[in-house]
Task: structure prediction
Amino acid sequence: MNAAPALRSKLWRVPFLAVLLSTLACLGTGRPALKFSPDQLPPATLGQPYIVTISITQNATPVGQMSVQAADLPPGLSMAFFKGRDYAVIGGTPQQAGTYKFTVSAWCFGTNVAGQFGHQDYQIVVQ
Result:
């Protein structure tokens, strides 16, 4: 009798169970949600330099990455995350007036359990 098919049918369970247990362990940690600061971003002025720092707090481990869809930022602005830091900077010179809505996402490194993750909706009004 060939045991390979029976063994293969059981192997898929190992990664699935590892992911499930990791997820349940994270949910059961009682850790607070990641806090993004500030809650709101200041307005920008067309053609004038703009810079704002978005910080993460309440993280149990270091922030691994912060990101935003670049296409959602006002033209002329970009976001930079500094590896090893718990913040990112949005800066540049806005080139078009309008209201720009976007989401900043962050994840933290895991330890013995899955790391934290979160997101914050923002908007920048360019006048």
Q: What stands out?
A: The helical segments are 4-11, 13-27.
